[in-house]
Each structure stands twice: as C-alpha cells, then as structure tokens.
Amino acid sequence: MKKLFLRIGILLVIVYAVCQLAISSMPFSWGNTRLNTKFQSYKENHEQYNTLLIGASTTYRHINSTTFDSIVNAQYPELQIKSYNFGIPANRTPQSLQMLDALLDYDMSNIKHVVIDMSELTKMGADNLHKKEMLYWYNWGNIGDVMKASYESEKGVNKFGVPMLHAFSFGEKSLLFGNGPSVIMQHAGLNIEPLSVGPDNNGFYSLDQEMHDDPEGDLAIRYNELRTPDTIAYRTKRCQELVDHYKTATKNPNKTIEDNLKDVIEYCEKNGISVTIMLSQRLGERYEYLIPLYNQLPEKNRIGFQDPSAYPALNDRDNLFDLAHLNENGSKVFTQIFAGEWLQRLEMQNIIQPKPTPVVEQDTLNLNTTADGSGI
Amino acid sequence: MCWKAEYAFLIVFSTTVDYYTANKMSRMSDRKGRLPYLMISLISNLGLLFSFKYFNFFNDSARAVFEQFDIFYNVPEFNLFLPVGISFYTFQALSYSIDVYRGDFKAEKNFGYFALFISYWPQLVAGPIERPGDLQPQLKQNFDFDYDRVKQGLIRILYGFFKKVVIADRLGLFVQQVYGNTDGHGGWVDPSYEHGGFAIILATWMFAIQVYCDFGGYCDIAIGSAKIMGHNLTDNFKTPYFSKTIREFWERWHITLTVWVRDYLYIPLGGSRVSFGRMLFNNWFTLTIMGLWHGANWTYVMFGFIHGFFIVMSRIWDRYFPKLTLPQLLPGMKAFTGVFLAFWIFNLTCIPDIFFRSNTVGDAWGIIQNIFSPDTTSYLIHNSAAKGAVPSVIEFWVSIACVALLLFTDYKLYTNKSVGIDKFVVAKPFYARWSFYVVFLVIVTLFAYTSKSVFIYFAF
C-alpha cells in the first residue's frame, strides 16, 4: 500500500506542476474576460495612467473615467489625472485587493492614486462553484485571509461552509480544474470582449451603452422591468433603514478585511500612492458588514455613498438603470459627486491644497447632491 | 428519474421477495413445483417496473388509440417518479430468480449476501447487469490488498472519467444545440436556430459518441471501483464503434443487457433453432423489447425496432448473399474495407440514435427531414468567449481532439482483442504506462466539463 500511495503522490506532484506551469503562462486576469480585456488594453498604454479605479459594477458602470479626469484636472491641473476604470461586475473586496496587487506588481512606477470600491466581502454561493470567474483570483497569499474573513463574517453553518467553499475553489484553481479550454482561449487571444473597455477605451462602460451594443442581452429586461417607482421606493427605504441602524456601529465583524485594507493603505502610502476606499450605494445587501467595516477606516481614506438621504440624486428614477446601478446620466451625476468628494480626501491627505468650490452649471448637475446639501 | 429515500423500499421489497421465492424454489426438485414461486418473482419485479416506468406510457398510448375512435377513456395517470436504477436491479433480480428456477444457480441462504448482490453499489444504478453466477461467489471471497489489482482499478476509473467528464459531458453541449431546440412536432423552438445538413449529422455523430462515453465511462468507473474492492464485473462495452457488422456491434455494445435478453427472452422464444422466418421475428422482437427497456417512450421502441430491422437485414443478406461482402469483393484492400465498414456501421447505428435522443418520434422525423435542408453548422459553435449556452469554437476543437484520442486508444484496445484499458496499460513498459497516467490525469484535470450534469443512463 505504501508503494501505491507513493506512486499516486508522485503522479499528483507531476500533475500539479503541469497545472502550475499552465497558470504561470497566463496573466492574473485570465478567469474574467472583461478584466482580461481591460488588462490587455491597460497594458498597451499603461505608462499614461496614474490612477486606478478598482471595484465592482458600481465602479465599472458609475465612474466615467473621462469625465472624472476632466473634472479633477480642471480644478487641479497639477495632478494630471489619467484614470483607468478596473471595475468588474460582481468583484469582491478580496478580488479587488488581488487585482491591485497584480497591477502594482506589473508596473507601479506611474501610479499615484488608487480608489478601491468596497463590495460584499467574501460571500460566494454554491451555484458559482467551478466557474472560472470565481476561481482565478485565489493564490497562496490570499486564501488564508479569505477563509478567515468569511469565517468572521458568516453566520451559522456558513461560518464553516463558506470557508470550505473558498478552500475547494482554491484547490480547483491550483489544478486549473476544468479550465483547459480557458488556457487555450487565453493563448489563442480569444479571451476578450472588446466592447467591455467602453467607447473611450478606459474601462468605463455604461449600462445604457452596453444595452445599445447588445440589444438582445438581458439588460433591456433589467432596464424595463426592475426600475419601477415602487421597487425604487422600497429599495431606498430599506437602504435607509440599514444605514440608520449601522451608522454608528463600531464593532467590526470583519477584522481581517479591515486589516487587509489598512495594510494596503500603509503600503501604498509608503510608495507615494494615495488610497481611497469607497463604499457605493448598494441594494443594501451586506450593509451589516460593510458599514461597520467602513466606520473603522481612516476618515481621510474613505468615501461613503451608502446613505440615500445624503445623495437623493442617486435614487432618482431618471438616474437609475436598474435597482442597483445608475444609467449613463446617473453615472455623470455620480462621477461629479465622486470627483468632488475624492478631491476633499486628497486635501485631507495633504496631497492638494483646498481651493474655492467652482460654480457648476445648473443643467448638467443635480444640485443638493452632497452630504451637506451644498452641492459641488 | 429520482432519488427518494422511500424508494429504497422498492429495492428492499424486490430483494425480500426474490430471496424468499428463490429459497422456496431451491427446496423443490421439479420445475413444476418451482413455477408458482417464479411467477411470484416475475410478477412482483415486472409489476414494480411496469408501475413505475411503463404504466403512464401504455396508458397514454391506449388513450390516444381510444380517442382516435372517439371512445371514452378515463384511466388516470400515475404521478410517480422513476426510481433511479430500477431497470438494472430489477433485471439483475430477475436473472437470479430465473437461474434458480432453471437449476443453474443455487439459492443464496444468507440474506445479507443476497442483498449485497442486488444492491452492489458500483453497478446498482446503471449496470453492468451482473449474473448471479458471476458476481455472487466473488462477494464471499476474502482478499488481501493487491497492488496490481488496485492499480488496474484506478486505471479503469481514470479512463472512465476521461470518457464521462471530458468527452460525454462536453459533447452534450453541441448535441443540445440541435436536439434541445425541437418543438415535439418536427419543428424548431427557436426558428432562428434552425439546423440542417451537416449540423444535424455532426450533432448525431457527437451524440453517438456521447452516449458511448457516458454509459461506457460509467461502466469503467463501476468496474474499476469493484476491482479495487477485489471483484471483477463484466465488461459492458468492447470498442463497439470498430464493429464491422451490425451483429458484431451488438456483441460489443451494452453486452450484459444483450446477453440477458438473449438468455432470458431470445432463446426461450426459440432463438435460432427455429425456422428462418421465426428466427428473424425473434431477433426483431427482442431488439424492440431491448429498445423499450431503455425508456417508456415510442422513441426507444423505434430505436430497438430499427436496430432489429438492421439485424434482420444482415441475417437475410448473410443467408442469400454470403459471398457478396466487401472483404470478399475487395480481398486485397483489407485496411480500406475495415475502415469503410466500421464507418458504415457507425453511421447505421446513428440512425436509431436519432430516435434515442429525440424527445418524440415527431422530433426524430423532423430531424431526419432537416438533414436534407441547407447547412447551418455555424449555430453549433460560436467564435467568441461568452455567448450563453452556445459552446465556443475552443470547446469544439477540444472535443474533437479528445474524441480523436479516444478513437486512438480504443483502436489500440480493438487490435488487442478488445481487452480492458487496465490490462492493456499494465502490460506496457514503464515509460508508456506513466505517459498514460500523466496524459490522462492532466486531461481529466484540465478538461473535465464541470457544469452540473448527470449520467444519461441514470434515467433508465
């Protein structure tokens, strides 16, 4: 029996080595076609970008990089902001951190600013098992923290079940289980969706634009059926209740993610990179974790859009595409709000000096959109 | 098809009845005395099978006939799920009772061993259908750990996984593009995805290989698992797609069912020791019953009926034109005739497969008619990375490459008297063995199709 186990062990080591070789032949982005497309497009001109916007669909669909750059540069030309939107639908915070790690590893010499959009922490459903989008981002450096973080944030049997799902997925990733076609697709140059980098080729792709580009997709259903006055009212009320409940919560149930984020801030600042952590307005899911975690982050490094009453424009039906996302017009509104808030954080980080608030034309901006109601 | 805890009662019932009747029969010296107990066993086993699998089929068929003549028919449908593996363990239990009745096998006195024979887990749900004389004595043997035997079992399992999760599940994607788009009446659900010509032929070829890899892969895994535990199960497939006649095909395809039907149906009907015409009927009838065994649908009846027709035609040809065969007409072209005949027989078996895969006979006719319509192969695959259920061009070429590897390996087995892959590999030198292990393990690891899917034969 010893002989059998020895030979099986040797065989598994060989197979593991072959799989690792295959993984090492691909960029970090191989498991997500949109991310891969963005990374390929970013690589072509990466020396001109100095700001990375990383996060989920709330980054991808909401922050128009071109608008953001022009607003910021109009006020602070010395910053010479050129941003790339690395928002990816359904990206989790640990995935964003892995993405940032990989991008800085690739070339951090030009990077001056990083924005990370917080998302649901570590939740993953059994339905997503085996999907390459859920596998590609695990590595030896993050699996321990991801398991620990999910243990901290889950409840009941999920406290053990979800970490096990992560461990299982990490195992699948390590062996590239069932992902041979993805390896071939990557090397054949087929792992791209050219439209997903957006018309300006900077990673921003509004949902309206995507619906226009792919009229047979399911976006039209989302646009026409989800965005009713009743559902919007319910969603806004629910978010408000959660925000009010957790507004002053100080007990963060997820120390691991908090530590990860603080480590990122510290590391980046040491390397001359400003970090801003953003909490977007969401459907309300996981606010019980996100808001207490947000409350633990340094004020100068965080921007929170979670409170519906503070940003009524973000709940205006005319600005919404569906219940969780803004449309093209909403993204313009949000980008302007975000740019203003972000500049305030740079001021707090002593990267820029305060300037008088510029006057913005009424017809392009929905005033009364900031937390204090003063407009931008 | 379903798993339900209460359905365990069925197998317990079947096991108890057969244990009781067999032991009763073994105490009687003449067949006449045993007959009532055999009837109890047959009625209870076939009754269960009929109730759970065939009642609604015959009921619906009868209703359709009565409605044709405007006769009132009001027998309600049974709302029952098909218990998983019922066709397999029922046939296994029946063979036990019949063998004991015939005096070919002594009834097992120990209920535990008998229950183990009926419910032996590697082959419980999808065969091979074991005969009591083959499996039951093995269950009583003690055995020590045997490195070579375990190695062979693992090789068999590895090859089974290659067939099942790499080839069968992946080919199913393409097959579904055609057969999943039929409307039940010979038309297409989505008219923009009409298929014709080569797309249908390709999908049907793929289905033929899919069903072989699905069922054959499952059997390899079952045989390998049993081998690790020290038991030898019967080979169910012996490189069937290299057959050069339709009769040879049935000697290599689902062997345990073919042998079962031969021994318990074909021979009792008279087999081939009757008039030529009666023998043809016996062949046709048993093949049609074999088709019906697969499922309660006219499509399966047609599957068996068409195979029966092919067998009858081959019998007639052999009788009246014994010298009019390709190898005799082209004696100097052995390789060509071999390849041509294998390809010809493969394509012949694809015709009943159209019925086997279709949801209704109407769908099957629709597909056959559309073979002659313009080609729309491009709908089977898609060039971009993510287009919903339409598989990508990469998946297509991966499938083709894996099928090529399967055919190469199966050809090697075929030319080695169709031994099992395990025996074939262990007889090879060190470098060849390890190349096999590494290549197939890497392929199974990297190219397993990981979306949810079930063994097709679980449905039977």
Layout of helices and strands:
The complex is a heterodimer of chains A (376) and B (460).
Chain A lengths: L1 H23 L8 H12 L6 E5 L1 H4 L4 H11 L7 E5 L5 H14 L6 E6 L13 H4 L7 H11 L4 H17 L5 H8 L19 H7 L5 H8 L2 H18 L8 H16 L3 E6 L7 H10 L5 E3 L23 H21 L28
Parallel strand pairs in A: 1-2, 1-3, 3-4, 4-5
Chain B lengths: L7 H19 L4 H38 L17 H17 L8 H9 L12 H8 L7 H33 L17 H32 L17 H7 L2 H12 L9 H19 L3 H23 L5 H4 L4 H24 L3 H10 L22 H22 L6 H6 L3 H18 L13
Helix pairs in contact in B: 1-2, 1-3, 1-4, 2-3, 4-5, 6-7, 6-15, 6-17, 7-13, 9-10, 10-11, 11-13
The N- to C-terminal Cα distance of chain B equals: 8 Å
Largest beta-sheet characterization of chain B? none
Question: Would you identify the CATH architecture of chain A?
Answer: 3-Layer(aba) Sandwich
List low-pLDDT spans of chain B: 382-389, 453-460
Strand content of the residues of chain A, in percent? 5-15%
Q: Report the end-to-end length of chain A measured between terminal Cα atoms.
A: 74 Å
How does the major sheet of chain A shape up? 5 strands, parallel
Number of domains of chain B: 2
Describe the structure.
The complex is a heterodimer of chains A (376) and B (460). Chain A is an alpha/beta fold and 376 residues long. Helix content of chain A is 49%, strand content 7%. Chain A has one domain (2-348): Rossmann fold (3-Layer(aba) Sandwich), CATH 3.40.50. Chain A has 15 helices and five strands. In chain A, strands 2-1-3-4-5 form a five-stranded parallel beta sheet, sandwiched between helices. The radius of gyration of chain A is 21 Å and the shape is globular. Chain A starts with a helix and ends in a 28-residue tail after the last helix. Chain B has 460 residues and is mainly α. Chain B folds into two domains: 5-119, no CATH class; 148-459, no CATH class. In chain B, helix 6 crosses helix 15. Chain B is globular, with a radius of gyration of 23 Å. Classes of the chains: A alpha/beta (376), B mainly alpha (460). Chains A and B meet through helix 1 and helix 9 of A and helix 6, helix 15 and helix 17 of B.
